[in-house]
Design brief:
The protein is of the alpha/beta class. The chain has a single domain, classed as 3-Layer(aba) Sandwich (Rossmann fold), CATH 3.40.50. The chain contains 8 helices and 10 strands. The strands form 2 sheets. The protein has a 7-stranded parallel β-sheet with strand order 1-10-9-6-2-3-5. A 3-stranded antiparallel β-sheet has the order 4-8-7. It is globular and about 50 Å long. The structure holds fructose -6-phosphate (F6R).
Length: 258
């Protein structure tokens, strides 16, 4: 795992966006896994800046959302389909038909989950998956004790996740109870993982994911199994890492680095 500690959120956005841009330059029709939430917003804004400046062409990429709430009315502004439209599809000028999100409004959610998996497979798999991390260590909406080999499925959100996400809704009770989420096994099949985390509230989860035991109690610890996982942190999110000095040293001395 490559752990990169950067001074603040702006640098996290810039360095993580560089990694995504490199993946797209290598493969202009890259399949990109898209997280929602606050963590990747700076990264998306940075990619949009590069597109607007003419430095990056994303017209050939395809996108897959990580997760979706169950039961929100179609077009609800906090559905992840709407959020991705506002924060990724429109700013990057993507063709909406090339971006897929699990259908949280489906009558048959199990069938929707299976169909989403098939769609990823038909696209050739995800080249690079962007991730945030929950304060309880979740990635996607794989809450603690999720199977490490799980696939896209219905999950019940942890009370802590609903409380954390209440800021996007009128009141905590308005946060849906269920979601569809890519599984940890699905996420592990992406060829590259890029996790971004900022702020002190993520420091315990980040430390458990990077340095704790591989355990479903911290679903993000599954990144330890992935051969190409990068974790981009600001100083606050890195505050509980025991080997922080080593990570700074390896980043400063990275082969080909500045
Ligand atoms: C969102 C997602 C979640 C978030 C996590 C952190 O698609 O999959 O795992 O990445 O809850 O949320 P923020 O970034 O809002 O702190």
């Amino acid at each position: 795992m490559e752990v990169v500690i950067l001074p603040g959120p702006d640098e996290v956005a810039r360095v993580a966006a560089r990694r995504i841009a490199e993946a797209v330059r290598r493969r202009p029709d890259a399949v990109v896994g898209l997280a929602t939430g606050s963590s990747p917003l700076g990264l998306y804004a940075e990619l949009a800046r590069q597109v607007a400046a003419g430095w990056l062409d994303v017209s050939g990429i395809r996108g897959f959302g990580l997760d979706e709430y169950v039961g929100l009315p179609p077009g609800h502004p906090q559905s992840y389909a709407s959020v991705l439209r506002r924060t990724v599809v429109q700013p990057l000028g993507l063709d909406p038909a090339r971006v897929h999100v699990p259908d949280g409004g489906a009558a048959d959610l199990d069938a929707a989950a299976a169909g989403f998996e098939r769609r990823i497979e038909a696209a050739g798999g995800i080249d690079v998956q962007i991730l945030g991390i929950g304060a309880n260590g979740h990635i996607g909406f794989n809450e603690p004790t999720s199977s490490l080999s799980s696939r896209t499925r219905v999950k019940t959100l942890a009370p802590r996740t609903r409380a954390d996400n209440a800021r996007f809704f009128g009141s905590p009770e308005d946060v849906p109870v269920h979601c569809l989420t890519q599984g940890l096994g699905t996420i592990l099949e992406a060829r590259e993982l890029v996790l971004v985390a900022q702020g002190r509230a993520k420091a315990d989860a980040v430390a458990a994911a990077v340095e704790g035991p591989l355990s479903s109690m911290c679903p993000a610890s599954v990144l330890q199994l992935h051969p190409r996982a990068g974790v981009y942190l600001d100083e606050a999110a890195a505050a509980r890492l025991r080997l922080a000095d080593y990570y700074r040293h390896t980043w400063a001395h990275r082969p080909g680095g500045g």
